[in-house]
């Protein structure tokens, strides 16, 4: 297991546990951009130097126990081949029009890394206010894969190749060509490995949100947690509802049993929704109010399993044999 | 031999509870214990100074003999009481308001 710690005092640390989280050891924390990192677009339209900030995402390889990927802010992807001791940037990603990427309100962070368990070569990543990107050669070269995304409220060219604020991606391992996306606004689906996207927001009460997840055993069953808007990060009507689609999008049902249905104003962040691989597929999510809710039955019923934490940034599930 | 007191979180990181004792080459400057610490405990690299720029992190301060040494050039000699091992260098995580 890996954990990213970042504080204003002591900067970035990476910790690794070899015993399921009982004990932790610090590993490498030197994330040096490959060559001169160059510049990206800044809020005022000028170019701004790339600067390393926190590690947002750590994604262990699904096939090689020594390989782990790290998504960082300012957006870049790093790879370690020695279980986190040293890190090398996969600098080809920033060649995918990196000079046009621009930070959004949450910073210019690479927050999502999707790996294909059957094939180590394709990698998908998502970057806030830049978009989704795919590599077909284990991270050496990259293409923006944002065709079909429409960001009418956010961008002067609503269908531009880069600049879309992708919040999260999800894939089912049995069907790696199908991707689901929670964008800033809009829930999207691609059936061709990201080459094109179409909207599947359907009857959601709001299509703004952060996390998206796929059921462990039903590749067409997906989950989102709608919130009201970009400036109002809380559930519509104060009702905390997970929405489930059993049709791969477009038709959604609210899941409310056991969740607060009045005066609830928490958010669920992009990495705070996870599924286990038990036969009935447990679903878990953490809130900015410090609760973790769990469902042992694919979302039909829920109960809080932890409360009074700080804001929950990330929920990961390990299904033990 | 000089003594260095780390802030609590860095003591946890390097698994020590007592002030660290460092043997420094002459001349013993403000920068010398930082270099020695990072050499003995590579995990401290980046936690006190930025790994790329080598600049002190904004909320880290250096004190010795009741004086704030944070803004002094790293080539400045440490106070005699420090080099004599009487007083420690204190690396402090500042208490920013908010």
Question: What key attributes describe this structure?
Answer:
heterodimer, A: 321 residues, mainly beta, Methylamine Dehydrogenase, Chain H, 2 domains, four-stranded antiparallel β-sheet, 25 strands, B: 98 residues, Ubiquitin-like (UB roll), five-stranded mixed β-sheet, globular
Write the layout of secondary structure elements.
The complex is a heterodimer of chains A (321) and B (98).
Chain A: E1 2-7, E2 11-16, E3 25-26, E4 39-41, E5 47-49, E6 55-60, E7 68-72, E8 76-80, E9 88-89, E10 110-116, E11 119-127, E12 131-135, E13 143-144, E14 166-171, E15 179-183, E16 187-190, E17 198-199, E18 208-214, E19 222-227, E20 242-245, E21 253-255, E22 273-275, E23 283-286, E24 292-295, E25 303-306
Antiparallel strand pairs in A: 1-2, 2-3, 4-5, 6-7, 7-8, 8-9, 10-11, 11-12, 12-13, 14-15, 15-16, 16-17, 18-19, 19-20, 20-21, 22-23, 23-24, 24-25
Chain B: E1 2-5, H1 8-14, E2 20-22, H2 31-40, E3 60-64, E4 67-68, H3 80-83, E5 89-93
Parallel strand pairs in B: 1-5
Antiparallel strand pairs in B: 1-2, 3-4, 3-5
Question: Could you give a short description of this structure?
Answer:
Chain A is mostly beta strands and about 325 residues long.
């Amino acid at each position: 297991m890996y954990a990213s710690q970042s504080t204003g005092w002591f900067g970035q640390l990476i910790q690794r546990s070899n015993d399921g989280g009982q004990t932790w050891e610090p590993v490498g924390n030197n994330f040096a951009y490959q060559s001169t990192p160059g510049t990206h677009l800044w809020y005022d339209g000028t170019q701004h130097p790339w600067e390393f900030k926190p590690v947002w995402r750590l994604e262990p390889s699904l096939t090689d126990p020594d390989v782990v990927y790290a998504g960082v802010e300012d957006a870049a992807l790093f790879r370690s081949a020695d279980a986190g001791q040293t890190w090398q940037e996969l600098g080809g990603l920033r060649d995918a029009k990196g000079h046009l990427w621009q930070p959004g309100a949450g910073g210019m962070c690479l927050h999502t890394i999707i790996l294909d368990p059957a094939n180590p070569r394709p990698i998908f990543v998502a970057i806030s206010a830049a978009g989704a990107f795919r590599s077909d050669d284990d991270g050496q070269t990259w293409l923006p894969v944002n065709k079909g995304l429409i960001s009418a409220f956010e961008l002067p060219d609503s269908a531009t190749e880069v600049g879309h604020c992708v919040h999260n991606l999800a894939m089912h391992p049995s069907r790696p060509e199908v991707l689901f996306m929670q964008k800033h606004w809009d829930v999207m689906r691609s059936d061709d490995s990201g080459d094109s996207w179409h909207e599947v927001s359907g009857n959601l009460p709001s299509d703004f949100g952060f996390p998206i997840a796929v059921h462990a055993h039903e590749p067409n069953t997906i989950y989102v947690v709608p919130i009201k808007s970009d400036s109002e990060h809380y559930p519509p009507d104060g009702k905390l509802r997970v929405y489930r689609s059993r049709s791969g999008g477009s038709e959604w049902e609210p899941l409310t049993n056991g969740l607060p249905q009045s005066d609830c104003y928490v958010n669920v962040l992009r990495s705070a929704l996870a599924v286990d691989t038990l036969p009935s597929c447990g679903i878990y999510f953490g809130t900015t109010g410090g609760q973790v809710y769990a469902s042992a039955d694919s979302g039909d019923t829920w109960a809080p399993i932890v409360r009074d934490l700080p804001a929950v940034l990330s929920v990961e599930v390990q299904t033990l044999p | 031999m000089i003594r260095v007191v780390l802030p609590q979180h860095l003591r946890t990181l390097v698994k020590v509870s007592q002030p660290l004792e460092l043997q420094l080459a002459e001349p013993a400057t403000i920068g010398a214990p930082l270099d020695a610490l990072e050499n003995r405990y590579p995990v401290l690299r980046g936690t006190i100074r930025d790994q790329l720029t080598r600049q002190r992190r904004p909320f880290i301060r250096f004190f010795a003999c009741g004086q704030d040494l944070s803004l002094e050039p790293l080539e400045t000699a440490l106070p005699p009481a420090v080099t004599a091992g009487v007083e420690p260098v204190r690396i402090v995580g500042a208490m920013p308001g908010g």
